[in-house]
Amino acid sequence: MRNAICWDKNCETDGFQVPIQKQSKPSDGATPVRKRLSAQARRAEIVQAAIELFSETGFDGSTRDVARRAGITQPLLYRYFPNKENLIEAVYSRVFLETWDMQWDGMLLDRTQSVRDRFQRFYEAYTETVFQPVWLRLWYFALLRDANVHAWYREVVQEQILKPLVRERRVELGRSEVFAVTAEELDATWLLHGGLLNYGLRQQAAGQLDQTNRPRVIAEALDMYMLYSAARMPPQIN
Amino acid sequence: MRNAICWDKNCETDGFQVPIQKQSKPSDGATPVRKRLSAQARRAEIVQAAIELFSETGFDGSTRDVARRAGITQPLLYRYFPNKENLIEAVYSRVFLETWDMQWDGMLLDRTQSVRDRFQRFYEAYTETVFQPVWLRLWYFALLRDANVHAWYREVVQEQILKPLVRERRVELGRSEVFAVTAEELDATWLLHGGLLNYGLRQQAAGQLDQTNRPRVIAEALDMYMLYSAARMPPQIN
DNA sequence: CCATCAACTTATCGTATGATAATTTATTCA
DNA sequence: TGAATAAATTATCATACGATAAGTTGATGG
């Protein structure tokens, strides 16, 4: 029964035509067009396909569509992921956990530059990653699905970005950085960080990347924080 | 064949037990427990059920679950809505179009109060509506589904809230309000508005309403704008 | 009282979905 | 070369979904 034509009403060809030879990548003319990847490589390709699909349709995108994008059959997916939820978690960790660039930590603490300049550079780099439609859409889809992702992200942003911003600004204004960051100080930085995220979402919803004036919007956000923090923390207090 | 027990494999009782008499509202002891609403009332109940379900599950929530919440059978839904997409649009207009309170327009333009006080009061009232989990979640679900909703919302917020804020602040600073609002001015207000929306989403994702310090966060956002606008628009320029 | 009409339910269709079992095919290494 | 092993496909299941057709029930007005 090789290359059998569909004969059963339940046969699931899922819109596949007669099985034409289909090459996933025209990279090498000598390779036998496709098939037989290592488990690791295949798994990575499935996750990549899932990322692309889920960022468009949300996590209700079907495993069949994931498989179609990966150029494989749907049951093969279950050799690499015990169920769909597990695949979703793989997408989470691939997209969200691998976001942070270690170089950024040093960038934020480089006191040879002003806080403004440091965070301007940082946010331009950060939004370069985070304003990708895939990241932004997956992020909001994940946020609406379960709150755990959000709790984790809240921690990351607070510890890696916002608290350093508050502390470095304190130093720049001649105050001590050792006291715990207050809720008020955090809220102020969250307003701007959240405002930037919202800006990215609006941009992507409008279908425009708008690379040009993104630096200006970041600068406006930082301007506001500099004015606000200076008004709230006069430098002579010590 | 009344009250027939399920006999066919395809019979769709959908988890309903033996059809016990079920009352939708224990309001009146004399009413015959349920059934027979006017078309208008039934339609409203379906939309309400859809709002609640979709705000939890997203718009992929099934029509069967909507029907179950409304206390009716699923096919009845199709007497009031030709298809699911139409029901979704009914949810859109019920939730998003009926959001704006006409009183707010006057509140924003009442020059007997400072711009700060006016917008503090406004945002406290506005977020009272908009920070409801139903509104916030439905909003982001809609935003991720189709960009049209977003384009409409962008206009509403800009024309009803942000441009009035810029113009009123110009007046307060002794500048003319007649010149067109610039992109820079709008971006600054969008940052704060978006920051507040993001704050609401974070609150709801964390599962806490946090009614107490919402006014403080609003005040911080307005503080920032007041400082920023004063720095950008010195009052002597005319 | 009963005919009429609208509200509501039952039964059912075609299709899509997550998941599994059985089978085939390519690669590897003794 | 040829077993052994892992990659990949075919066939299939049970369930859930959107949607439709036909029948049932209850209120209304003549």
UniProtKB/TrEMBL annotation, chains A, B:
Keyword hit for DNA-binding: yes
**Name the UniProt record assigns to this protein:** HTH-type transcriptional regulator LuxR
Q: What is the lineage of its organism?
A: Bacteria, Pseudomonadati, Pseudomonadota, Alphaproteobacteria, Rhodobacterales
Q: Name one Pfam family in it.
A: TetR_N
Which PANTHER family does the record associate with it?
BLR6905 PROTEIN, HTH-TYPE TRANSCRIPTIONAL REGULATOR RUTR
Annotation: DNA-binding region:
62-81
GO molecular function ontology, one term from the record: transcription cis-regulatory region binding
Give every HTH tetR-type domain span. 40-99
Which UniProt keywords are given for this protein, alphabetically ordered? DNA-binding
Q: Which SUPFAM superfamilies match?
A: Homeodomain-like
